[in-house]
Amino acid sequence: MITGGGTQLISSLLNVPGGSDTVLQALVPYSEAALNQHLGFTPPRACSEETARWMAMRVYQLASTEQSESADTVFGLAVTASLASLQAKKGEHRIHIAAQTLSTTFTWSLILKKGHRSREQEEELCQNMALNALCEVMQLEPANTLDLHTSETMLSHSLQGEEDLQQLLFSQNRTARLFHPTQALSQTERPELVFPGAFDPLHDGHKRMLEVANKITGLRACFEICVHNIEKPRLDFISLAKRCEPFKEMPHNLVLTTATKFVDKARCFPSAIFIVGIDTLERIADPQFYDHSTASRDEAIAEIDRLGCRFLVFGRMLSGEFKHLENLSLPARLEAICSEVPESAYRMDISSTELRNNRSG
Length: 361
What we know:
Elements (H helix, E strand, L loop, with lengths): L1 E3 L2 H8 L4 H4 L3 E2 L4 H8 L9 H18 L9 E7 L10 E8 L3 E9 L6 H19 L17 E6 L2 H7 L7 E3 L13 E4 L7 H14 L3 E6 L10 H8 L8 E5 L4 H7 L4 E5 H8 L8 H13 L3 E5 L1 E3 L2 E3 L8 H5 L1 E4 L10 H9 L1
Parallel strand pairs: 1-2, 1-3, 8-9, 8-11, 9-10, 11-12, 12-15
Antiparallel strand pairs: 3-4, 4-5, 5-6, 7-10, 13-14
Helix pairs in contact: 1-5, 9-11
């Protein structure tokens, strides 16, 4: 399955030897709204390597669902480019291509020399790059020799996931878990204090929260990252490697799971105390995350309680105000299993979203 590019590019990809037997569907989410709908969220930048990887993962997931054969026979290929137009662009002219298979994430990126080519020539170069990328994924010889300026260098990268990571990433089991492969830990070990999050990026506020929680409870702690996402495409192998890298120097364990909801996390870690921010607790109490069903929300909270799980809640600055547990209107059963960390014990107004935006900008 292929996404991105334009009709001419898609047509050329379908004409690669063997391509017509392999491609299930071609999508062209050209407008901003179409791209957002395709991904399930609004990416920081429409044309970036990260966005190309999100697009490739999304179409791989679609292809895997639609393909009756084994998942290792399908792939997702995505192209996003910012090329010459009638009005001069302030930013760089660039091409980002990504591919996702069961075992590997691929990327190809090229910053073009501005003014060196016409729009048609840049489109042709993008087309040739995409054809070569498709050939590499299909283990064929390159279809074209790229005509690059001496100042241009195409950057390519591929990362193959370990077999146990592949199984976790594409598992349909919502309670699968895997101790981070770089740490020699038992798969049967049961963490007692769990800090779930995206940790994109891991920052000093996260580290301080775990330190405070560890001191308050005296329990063995771990971080948890869910490799699935309800709204976004799943994490690819390159994203996972980047996300996990900072944890190599941490004294605490890291566990990867497929548990997208807290009731799933409770099934993964029965009797655990979960470290959460006040904004996360609001989402746990919000019926919209349970198909807008108050009954489903209450049923999930009841199961979390029956599994012996509790929440250790950290206040946070939201909309210019530091919010406490008392500021929330929570279901009684959820409130009963929550304890709050005093503001005097923790106050660090750091935002992962701001850090991501600064990084992508």
